[in-house]
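Ligand: alpha-L-arabinofuranose. Inputs:
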Amino acid sequence: MVKMILNTDIKKGIINKNIYGHFAEHLGRCIYEGIWVGEDSQIPNIKGFRTDVVEALRKIKIPVLRWPGGCFADEYHWMDGIGPKEKRPCMVNTHWGGVVENNHFGTHEFLEFCQLIGAEPYICGNVGSGTVQEMQQWVEYITFDGKSPMADLRRVNGKDEPWSLKYFGVGNENWGCGGNMRAEYYADQYKRYATYVRNFGDNKIYKIAGGASVDDYHWTEVLMREAGKQMDGLSLHYYTRISKDWSKQGSATEFKENEWFSVLQNAFYMEELVNRHATIMDKYDPEKKVGLIVDEWGTWFAVEPGTNPGFLYQQNTLRDAIVAAVHFNIFNNHCDRVQMANIAQMINVLQAVILTEGQKMLLTPTYHIFDMYKVHHGARLLSMEFESPDYALGGDKISQISVSSSQDKEGKIHISICNLSPWQDADIDIDIRGFAPRYATGSIITSHEINAKNTFDAPNNLVIKCLEGIGLVNNHVVGKLPPKSVVMLEIV
Ligand code: AHR
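Predicted complex:
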């Protein structure tokens, strides 16, 4: 029996809905085919954007979308992506498959897409191969209301009114594909570029500095020390894999319990990363003004057999769903510092929420976790005490249970619980304190197979179902969580 105490009198911070953000890069079939098919396509579209994708994304209430990369961002020159499409120059996408990028999806298309799906745009600027002037002009083009060369150019291209743009990243992975810089050098570059990312009129930009890779704590230390006062957010990238050794890729769908275990163990590593980066941030920013922005996270496996290795196309199983749920529990529980997170990536790339094949589209198990967890958006984190049993394999062990809980504006309590064991039930008994529950209901994602997935022929193999057998006994919620499941309880 797992005994838990939920104390609604101990109120914690607000879970920023941006924790449920997404990332779309010019990589493989994410933008082209996944989002943009063009107005003349046979695939039903709204002004060139796939209708089925727009509808599916609206349902999960995506709060924020990062674009255009990733590594692509530091070789993207935004002026190539404006004006009449037939006149836009082509470029080579050197990072991702060496394919030709025709720039048909540019600034206007991205910002229109964000409006269509109801997401705030988060643009990542080019520090690695771009100029300060180019970055300055991009912000002016998008947000300046008055008369200026860039605002006039925007008007020539058919947009009179400026857009509002809140989130702007000053480079991406500048320790690697974004320029191979040292932390000390990037900190100076960050300050120089960020100076010219201007606030025009009422548009106030939240500036995000390029952050550390995984456990590069030196990077966070230097950035916070040298530039902490000039930034609103500092990013962090970490991908969950079967091993820390990048030569061991692992299959997204064909795996045994050992790789189920290692992937979940590596998902939990996010907790240590958040804790340790946050501790460094606390030293320079005890008031927690600077957000930790985990703007790339998710699983990274070998590409689907027969697909372009540069396109990073992978399938998605129940294991990915649990990885996503574990991450959200960690981010929710650290909402005092984690202000945004962006799954990599939205469509057809890495841990995608949607896969497409021509006219067909499917929602992955990860999509359903985003759907299930949307009740936590903007809710107040609650205090939950419990001791998890272990899930052990081969002499190693991790927690069997991962949890986070919140109370929304209407007073409803939501408890999200993952049972990571592939074979062991978890009997739970949650003592609800400071609240008189009237009833409890639950929904669940699970399967008999650890590698269950949705396919174009069987797209509803894994969906959210109603959880049976959850009950209220006095002020206790009691029930059984099946193995390998993610459950959302609602207590009213
Ligand atoms: O998401 C794929 C790539 O992973 C991104 O372009 C880069 O930032 C990271 O290394």
